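[recover] target loaded
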């Protein structure tokens, strides 16, 4: 047994020597830099351990006895990239590379899981005197805020002696659901969208990994929203590559699996139709191992959790090697189509709100005519009050936000817009392939659209009107005099015409969403009644004057 231990130790030392020889090329250090990297043979002082003379040091306090080392990597600068790219080791030309993306809520254990992965890959055992960190947590953030603020791609190039037979790219994402609220979650989702749209980004993916705590018995509405928001990014072909990484796991069934089933989260399934999942427990990753010689009950307990973590890593990385690599081409198409639809929806929403307001105005007018029926019969004039919509300019100068306004229709067609130059407005997302606007009422050509210092908003205003003015309005439109009965009929006809136009907008929106259903993993298709329900909820939330009448 002793001879076997010596053989294993010698193997580890040889591996670390090979690892050390690579570091100068990675960090740009001198040819003798590798001699400083001897964590298994020469541990440093008990308080502070240093990988090399130019690396980050980690303060270690009792009772932690294992030395912590920060993995040094080089940052690759890619112009226009939407993420940080950090590389460890030297690229191997003929070596397979696997790419995984990790997504999870703040506090899910994602950072510790990634650090656990790097220790597993490097072959660290419980008895070893060293531990490694790929990610070092910031100390100036609260536990309720995500430690990761940007998307980071860690490229771990294969070195002989790795526990996995391939290079690995770990895409780490900011945590969801921290104390900054749903607005921050939307920012994170947009960052992930931008990452996949990046022409310099990754072109394929092996696994999308949702990191969740084992004890999570139910998904909140916010968590469900987050899952759906992320799933809506991907194409349908990614479904079988979505897996669940369960942290803080023990030997029992994880309650979070039932929560995922109840929430109908799309992911790969195992043989008994459970969400395909892998259990991890990294609670003792940086715990004291008493130099690997502990014999107490606590040492046995910690060693058991270490083994549990190692088994989870082995199972996951073995399965990862069998997963089919997916091209992100369909995902990129989903993102492009979804963006076009979002612009269309954003443009249609104000038009639909205006439609609701006009319907409300006509209803008030009709009610006024009913109340003053006796005056109409006696051919008397009367006054009544209605709420109507008025287009107003909202100043956005100084905000740094670009906009696309239609000068002919006095409509905001795209806000915010990424194209500030008026001569390039043909490339605005609001324009179709022929250069005509999808949004403004006149479907005007792109050349009458401009970046301006204001956006068009529609606001409610009260106004007193007379029956004579209303009667004259309809008579001028028809070119003939009208009796009271004809005025009422014209008002009813106008109401039906506006109502028909409003419902047509809803139907058009539903039709445009069908393309997403064909290609997207989570297309969020809306039928007309669904969208009306959402608008009612929005009206109730904003509670603007007259909203009770508009949602009737």
């Amino acid at each position: 047994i002793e001879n076997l231990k010596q053989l294993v130790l010698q193997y580890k030392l040889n591996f670390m020597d090979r690892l050390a020889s690579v570091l100068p090329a990675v960090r740009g250090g001198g040819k003798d830099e590798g001699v400083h990297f001897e964590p298994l043979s020469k541990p440093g002082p008990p308080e502070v351990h240093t990988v090399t003379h130019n690396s980050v040091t980690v303060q270690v306090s009792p009772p932690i006895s294992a030395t912590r080392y920060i993995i040094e990597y080089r940052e690759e600068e890619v112009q226009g990239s939407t993420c940080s790219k950090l590389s460890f080791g030297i690229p191997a030309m003929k070596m397979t590379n696997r790419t995984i993306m990790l997504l999870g809520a703040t506090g899910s254990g994602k950072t510790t899981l990634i650090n656990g992965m790097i220790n597993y890959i490097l072959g660290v055992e419980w008895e070893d005197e060293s531990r490694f960190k790929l990610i070092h947590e910031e100390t100036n953030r609260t536990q309720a805020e995500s430690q990761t603020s940007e998307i980071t791609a860690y490229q771990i190039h294969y070195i002989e002696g790795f526990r996995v037979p391939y290079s690995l790219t770990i895409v780490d994402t900011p945590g969801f659901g921290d104390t900054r609220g749903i607005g921050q979650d939307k920012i994170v989702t947009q960052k992930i969208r931008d990452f996949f749209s990046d022409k310099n980004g990754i072109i394929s993916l092996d696994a999308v990994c949702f990191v969740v705590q084992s004890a999570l018995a139910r998904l909140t509405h916010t968590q469900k929203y987050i899952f759906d928001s992320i799933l809506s990014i991907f194409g349908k072909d990614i479904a079988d590559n979505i897996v669940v990484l369960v942290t803080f796991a023990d030997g029992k069934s994880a309650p979070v699996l039932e929560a995922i089933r109840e929430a109908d989260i799309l992911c790969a399934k195992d043989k008994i139709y459970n969400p395909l999942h892998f259990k991890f427990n990294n609670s003792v990753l940086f715990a004291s191992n008493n130099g690997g010689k502990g014999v107490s009950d606590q040492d046995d307990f910690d060693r058991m959790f270490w083994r549990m973590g190692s088994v989870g890593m082995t199972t996951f990385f073995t399965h990862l090697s069998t997963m089919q690599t997916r091209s992100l081409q369909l995902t990129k198409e989903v993102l492009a189509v979804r963006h076009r639809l979002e612009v269309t929806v954003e443009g249609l929403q104000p038009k639909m709100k205006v439609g609701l307001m006009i319907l409300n105005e006509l209803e008030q007018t009709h009610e006024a005519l009913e109340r003053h029926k006796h005056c109409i019969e006696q051919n008397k004039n009367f006054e009544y009050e209605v709420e109507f919509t008025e287009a107003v300019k909202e100043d956005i100068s100084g905000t740094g936000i670009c906009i696309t306004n239609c000068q002919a229709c006095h409509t905001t067609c795209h806000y915010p817009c990424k194209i500030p130059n008026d001569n390039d407005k043909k490339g605005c997302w609001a324009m179709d392939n022929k250069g005509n606007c999808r949004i403004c009422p006149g479907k005007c050509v792109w050349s009458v659209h401009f970046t301006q210092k204001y956006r068009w908003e529609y606001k409610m205003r009260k106004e007193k009107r007379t029956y004579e003015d209303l009667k004259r309005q309809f008579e001028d439109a028809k070119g003939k005099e009208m009796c009271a009965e004809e005025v009422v009929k014209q008002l009813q006809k106008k109401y039906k015409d506006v109502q028909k136009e409003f419902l047509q907008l809803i139907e058009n929106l539903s039709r445009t969403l069908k393309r997403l259903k064909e290609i997207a993993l989570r297309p969020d298709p809306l039928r007309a009644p669904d969208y009306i329900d959402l608008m009612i909820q929005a009206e109730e939330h904003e509670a603007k004057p007259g909203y009770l009448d508009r949602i009737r």
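[recover] notes: Residues 90-327 form a domain with the Rossmann fold fold (CATH 3.40.50.300).
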